[in-house]
Amino acid sequence: GESASGAPPCSGRKNEPLGPEAKQHFVSARAPEEEDRGGGERERESARARERRKNMFIQKAWRTAAFGLYGFTQFTKSGFVEHAKKFREEDMQIRLDGKNCLVTGANSGLGYATAQGLASHGATVYMLCRNKERGETALNEIRSKTGNMNVHLEICDLSSINEVKSFATKFSSLEKPLHVLVNNAGLLEHKRTTTPEGLELNFAVNVAATYTLTELVMPLLEKAAPDARVITVASGGMYTEPLNTNLQYSESEFDGTKQYARNKRVQVALTEWWAEKYSNKGVGFYSMHPGWADTPGVSKSLPVLSEKLSGNLRSNEEGADTVVWLGLQPKEKLVPGTFYFDRAEAQKHLKFAGTAASHEKIGSIVDSIRSICNLPANP
Ligand SMILES: NC(=O)c1ccc[n+]([C@@H]2O[C@H](COP(=O)([O-])OP(=O)(O)OC[C@H]3O[C@@H](n4cnc5c(N)ncnc54)[C@H](OP(=O)(O)O)[C@@H]3O)[C@@H](O)[C@H]2O)c1
């Protein structure tokens, strides 16, 4: 039957938590003036929610538009040519003989150009690749192009955190100081893919492996202090996303481009966090944006951009220029935690984009990454 107020009946069971129906009953049973006040408050709250949604939508649209404009004018080849007018030749006349560099994803695109660039400055380069055949081909090419025989191949599939850990143990057993770690390997996978270890693939390679590898080779980096540095190849794509604690993109509709942008935002915030955490260890942490370069990765994952900008994308060497530059510069010239673009400090947030405050979440994100990767809790 109906209840006295005419509202839908409650189930009548004692101590049952109030469901939505029951709540509705409760509200209708109040005095009329209370109901008016309650109704007015609800109206105002839903107006505020509408306003927040509208602002978020405008902010998102603004971010995308500002990123597009910034990108098309600066990230392209013409942007590089323009910025290169300010480059100083002497910056690149530094040698790295006797210094050890580890470059991930070194068989292709920017990683290849980075490994070649560092090798041409005399560094001992360890090329971390997942595929032996592709790795060997790249290794032989780089040795023959640079004449530097101190270039070596390391095999590791970074989508497996267990492999990253084994690699770090094996590499650490060489007991060599590590002067430069370049976290370059990365991907943009549009389809939601889960690795055999249960991680979302973009997150696994771009974030989990980057974090785990860096933390596990810290003792080697410290051996190379005060000269040591970690350069993480992030992306301007991160301008479109704030830092998000939803690391593995649990939303039902997967958007790989968005997930990639979120991953890159994590890399930039992580770099800031590392710079602060390890400020007394003599290891410098820098993230960077290579601009838009014509790499196998871009033509595979962003075919439309690749086609639209055909002829105006950067060469692999131009994309890797700032990575090599960061590897060569005396540490005093570099600002820890900074995001670099074309050999200069760049903004981490676009104006009015509303992304800046999100970096406060990095501490809890680090805790989550450590737990996902089965690393002991952060000391
Ligand atoms: N090109 C650009 O315009 C651009 C712009 C912004 C940022 N970036 C960043 O630059 C970095 C390099 O990208 P790219 O454009 O040079 O792409 P790329 O040509 O596809 O190179 C990516 C490299 O990462 C390696 N890699 C991918 N998954 C791996 C895994 N599970 N284990 C080990 N290695 C793995 C690839 O190995 P395989 O060859 O075996 O696949 C390859 O060597 C990425 O972090 C990317 O996000 C690029």
TrEMBL record:
Q: Which region ranges are annotated with the description Disordered?
A: 1-51
The record's annotation in Pfam families points to: adh_short
Q: Where is the composition biased (Basic and acidic residues)?
A: 37-49
Q: Which PANTHER family does this chain map to?
A: DEHYDROGENASE/REDUCTASE SDR FAMILY MEMBER 12, DEHYDROGENASE_REDUCTASE SDR FAMILY MEMBER 12
What is the official name of this protein in its record? Answer: Dehydrogenase/reductase SDR family member 12
Identify the taxonomic lineage of the organism of origin. Eukaryota, Viridiplantae, Streptophyta, Embryophyta, Tracheophyta
